[in-house]
C-alpha cells in the first residue's frame, strides 16, 4: 500500500511516500521557513536529491509544489495519482472529538475547522493540506492522525484545570497535549534502547520536542502522564513565535490598562512572542549565529529557552519519582548541540552529565551523549512522525 504522509507544521511541511507494511520510504522531503522569501525545499528519492531556496508564501503553494515533484517526468516517483491508496495527515488538535485515527469525512473536516481557535497556527494548515490532497489524490483514502491522541492517558489530576467543574464536564476545557505523534515515536524507541543498553530497565522518560513549536512529555511505562502544552498549543516552553507560559494577569493588563484588543493580544502571544519577540528572529539557526557575533538579546533568549526546559525537567522528575532518560528530538533538539549543552549544564543533581564530544557528533541514528558515569541517559533520537502516521494509517485501513 502506497501512502503519502503530509505533516503540515506551523512553518513547515514534511512529506514522505511510504510503501506499507514494509516501511519503505520511496520519497521524502521538507519545506521549511514557509512565509519567508528564503523557504527551503528538499526532495529526496533513491536516485535524486533536489534542494532549492525559493519564496513559498503559504502551505497551499508548498503542497502543490510537492505534488508536482512526485509526478514530475524526470524526478517523479509515480505516474498517476491512482497509485496512491491513502494519504495520512497529521492534525494537531482533535479536541474531545477524536482520540483515535479516523478516515476523513466532511463531518471530520467540520470538527477540525471548529478547533481553529485552539490551534490557529496548525489546524488551518492541516485542513489546507487535507483539502489540497483530496483534490490531487482524489481516489485515495484521506486519514487523520491527531497529535492529541497520545496524551489521552494523562490522568485527571494533571489534565484538569483548577476552574469551575462545569468547564470540564460541559465545555471539555482541559489539558489535551500536542506533538503526540512525535512523543509516542521517540519514547517507544527510547524504551527499546534502554532495555537493550541500560542496566536500569525502568521506563521513566522525559521527551523534549524542540522545533518552531516546543513541548515536553513525562512518560511512565510508555504512557503520557503530563505534558507542557495544554488546551491549545501555546503554553509551556518558549517557542519560535509563541510565548509559552505567561502570567494570566499580563493579558488582563494588556487589555484593561494598555488598550489592546483581545484579538491583538492573541496575535501577540501566538505570532509575535517567543524567540521572535525576544530577538527579532524566529529561526534558531539565525539566533545562534547572531549570539555568536555578540548579540546580547539572542544570547539571553537562548539562556531563557534552556532555563524553561530545565524547570520542566525538575518538575517532571518529581512527577515520575525518578528519571531513566531525557530525549532530545525534532529540528532543534536533534541539531542544536548548543541548546542541548545549555539544558544539561549544572544538572548533575538529576544524574544528567553531558559528554561534550559526543554532543557534537551528528547521526541519523539514536545516539547517547551522556558521560559513562551519568545516572540518567541523555539520548538524541530523530523523530519520524511520518513513519508513525503511516503505521497508524495502515493499521486502520487493514482492519
TrEMBL record:
Catalytic activity from the UniProt record: acetate + ATP = acetyl phosphate + ADP
Binding-site residues, ATP: 14, 209-213, 283-285, 331-335
Active site: 147
Top enzyme category: transferase
Binding site residues for substrate: 90
Cofactor(s) this protein requires: Mg(2+); Mn(2+)
Single GO molecular function: ATP binding
Note on how the cofactor is bound: Mg(2+). Can also accept Mn(2+).
Major localization class: cytoplasm
Family in the record: Belongs to the acetokinase family.
Listed name of the protein: Acetate kinase
Gene: ackA
Amino acid at each position: 500500500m502506497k501512502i503519502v504522509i503530509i505533516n503540515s507544521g506551523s512553518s513547515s511541511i514534511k512529506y514522505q511516500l511510504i510503501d506499507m507494511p514494509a516501511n519503505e520510504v520511496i520519497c521524502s522531503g521538507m519545506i521549511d521557513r514557509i512565509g519567508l522569501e528564503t523557504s527551503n525545499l528538499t526532495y529526496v528519492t533513491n536516485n535524486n536529491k533536489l534542494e532549492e531556496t525559493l519564496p513559498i508564501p503559504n502551505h497551499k503553494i508548498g503542497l502543490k509544489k510537492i505534488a508536482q515533484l512526485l509526478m514530475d517526468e524526470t524526478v517523479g516517483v509515480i505516474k498517476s495519482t491512482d497509485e496512491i491508496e491513502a494519504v495520512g495527515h497529521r492534525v494537531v488538535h482533535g479536541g474531545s472529538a477524536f482520540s483515535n485515527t479516523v478516515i476523513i469525512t466532511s463531518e471530520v473536516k467540520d470538527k477540525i475547522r471548529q478547533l481553529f481557535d485552539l490551534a490557529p497556527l496548525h489546524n488551518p494548515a492541516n485542513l489546507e493540506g487535507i483539502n489540497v490532497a483530496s483534490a490531487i489524490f482524489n481516489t485515495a483514502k484521506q486519514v487523520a492522525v491527531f497529535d492529541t491522541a497520545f496524551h489521552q492517558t494523562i490522568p485527571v489530576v494533571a489534565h484538569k484545570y483548577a476552574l469551575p467543574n462545569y468547564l470540564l464536564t460541559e465545555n471539555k476545557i482541559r489539558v489535551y497535549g500536542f506533538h503526540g505523534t512525535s512523543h509516542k515515536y521517540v519514547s517507544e524507541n527510547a524504551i527499546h534502547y534502554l532495555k537493550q543498553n541500560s542496566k536500569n530497565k525502568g521506563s521513566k522518560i522525559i521527551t523534549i520536542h524542540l522545533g518552531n513549536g516546543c513541548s515536553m512529555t513525562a512518560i511512565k511505562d510508555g504512557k503520557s502522564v503530563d505534558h507542557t502544552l495544554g488546551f491549545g498549543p501555546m503554553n509551556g516552553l518558549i517557542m519560535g513565535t509563541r510565548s509559552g507560559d505567561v502570567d494570566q494577569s499580563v493579558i488582563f493588563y494588556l487589555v484593561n490598562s494598555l488598550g489592546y484588543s483581545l484579538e491583538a493580544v492573541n496575535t501577540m502571544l501566538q505570532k509575535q512572542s517567543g524567540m521572535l519577540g525576544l530577538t527579532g528572529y524566529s529561526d534558531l539557526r539565525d539566533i545562534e549565529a547572531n549570539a555568536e557575533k555578540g548579540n546580547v538579546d539572542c544570547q539571553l533568549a537562548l539562556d531563557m529557552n534552556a532555563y524553561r526546559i530545565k524547570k520542566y525537567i525538575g518538575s517532571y522528575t518529581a512527577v515520575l519519582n525518578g528519571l531513566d532518560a531525557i530525549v532530545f528530538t525534532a529540528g532543534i533538539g536533534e541539531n542544536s548541540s548548543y541548546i542541548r549543552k545549555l539544558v544539561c549544564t549544572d544538572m548533575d543533581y538529576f544524574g544528567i552529565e553531558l559528554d561534550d564530544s559526543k554532543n557534537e557528533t551528528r547521526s541519523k541514528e539514536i545516539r547517547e551523549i551522556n558521560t559513562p558515569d551519568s545516572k540518567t541517559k541523555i539520548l538524541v533520537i530523530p523523530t519520524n512522525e511520518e513513519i508513525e502516521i503511516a503505521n497508524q494509517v495502515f493499521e486502520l485501513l487493514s482492519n
